[in-house]
Structure to design on (397 residues):
């Protein structure tokens, strides 16, 4: 009898061991409380819906994220899932870090329901290496009272912007503020102008590329924009706008709260970045990718769950970013009913990713240096972008 009991107990323990769910490790650098809270909630909902899979979240600080992921790739100790900054998606796909999920996406109900820019950021060499999770972009902030007093309409084209910025400039105020620091932040702010001409980041010194830098240089030359933009972060540009020292600025939705806090009585609006050939903006946000060492089938279950329209709506509503999936934005959602967010949601339709290219850091560095040289007039726009093109060509070899 004792032997029978021991055997039954032994079989029971073995069955429990066999039934233990497979743990999937998820890395993200989200450090804002609202981000972590809603992410944990979604993970909890997913885990409750599963019997064989359990997702476990690990926070990795942004400043250490790329290094830790690169080390993990070399040592074959990567997590199963990662939230990756969208310009880095192609870089790690090119390194072989991420699983190709083209076949899984092909028959997925979400296929074809994402905005073009976010979707493009998940692709490399014609294959799919992730799914967009959240998005943001840049748009034009404008001071309604200042524009009305100057008798100008919200500019929609470069010619209109140049005329409006000139008219809005006074001894105590510039017409436009941007960030043009020598970093990814500066490149991020330059790209809406660059892409609007139809220029390509692998041929930055084309006539179209030069036109974009020459246009921004013209705003500095006629004093419509301060030369100090080369030292301004996006937060600095916000301070200029909120304090009345700039009538317009280019910035993202993450600074809406700062403007409202710094200038509670300021009546401002959001519009598309004025265009040359086409409306354009630059894409920010994260994608959700499966690593090459993961159980691809199990990890895909979480990707499908998180990137459903319901979960993307839930996550992005809580965090204040935009769902990259068009059917996750309804007529009664905050992105449609809030006048500021609605402006960014409209701009998101034309927001394009940085790259996507596996050598994006080198391309970005070359562009931000060219931007500074062009705005400071230490080189002509053509010469600055010729130098940038030489650096990019060397990086692409």
């Amino acid at each position: 009898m004792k032997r029978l009991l021991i055997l039954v107990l032994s079989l029971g323990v073995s069955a429990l061991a066999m039934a233990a769910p497979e743990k999937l490790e998820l890395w993200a650098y989200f450090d804002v409380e609202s981000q972590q809270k809603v992410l944990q909630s979604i993970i909890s909902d997913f885990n409750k819906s599963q019997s064989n899979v359990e997702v476990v979240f690990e926070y990795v600080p942004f400043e250490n994220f790329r290094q830790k992921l690169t080390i993990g790739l070399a040592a074959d100790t990567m997590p199963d899932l990662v939230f990756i900054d969208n310009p880095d998606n192609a870089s790690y796909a090119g390194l072989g870090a991420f699983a190709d999920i083209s076949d899984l996406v092909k028959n997925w109900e979400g296929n074809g329901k994402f905005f073009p820019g976010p979707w493009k950021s998940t692709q490399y060499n014609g294959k799919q290496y992730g799914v967009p999770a959240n998005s943001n972009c840049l748009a034009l902030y404008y001071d309604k009272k200042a524009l009305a007093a100057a008798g100008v309409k919200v500019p929609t084209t470069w010619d209109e912007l140049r005329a409006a910025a000139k008219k809005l400039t006074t001894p105590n105020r510039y017409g436009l503020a941007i960030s043009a620091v020598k970093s990814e932040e500066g490149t991020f702010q330059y790209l809406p102008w660059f892409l609007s001409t139809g220029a390509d980041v692998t041929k930055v010194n084309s006539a179209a590329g030069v036109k974009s830098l020459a246009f921004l240089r013209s705003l500095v030359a006629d004093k419509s924009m301060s030369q100090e933009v080369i030292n301004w972060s996006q937060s600095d540009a916000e301070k200029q706008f909120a304090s009345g020292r700039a009538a317009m600025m280019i910035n993202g939705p993450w600074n809406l709260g700062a403007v409202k806090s710094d200038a509670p009585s300021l009546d401002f609006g959001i519009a598309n970045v004025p265009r040359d050939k086409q409306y354009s903006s630059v894409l920010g946000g994260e994608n959700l990718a499966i690593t090459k060492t993961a159980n691809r089938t199990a990890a895909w279950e979480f990707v499908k769950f998180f990137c459903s329209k319901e979960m993307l709506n839930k996550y992005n509503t809580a965090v204040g970013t935009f769902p990259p999936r068009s059917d996750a934005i309804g007529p009664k959602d905050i992105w449609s009913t809030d006048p500021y967010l609605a402006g960014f949601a409209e701009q998101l339709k034309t927001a394009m990713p940085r790259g996507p290219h596996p050598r994006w850091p080198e391309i970005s560095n070359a562009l931000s240096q060219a931007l500074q040289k062009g705005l400071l007039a230490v080189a002509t726009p053509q010469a600055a972008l010729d130098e940038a093109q030489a650096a990019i060509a060397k990086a692409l070899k």
Summary: The CA atoms of residues 98 and 291 lie 4 Å apart.
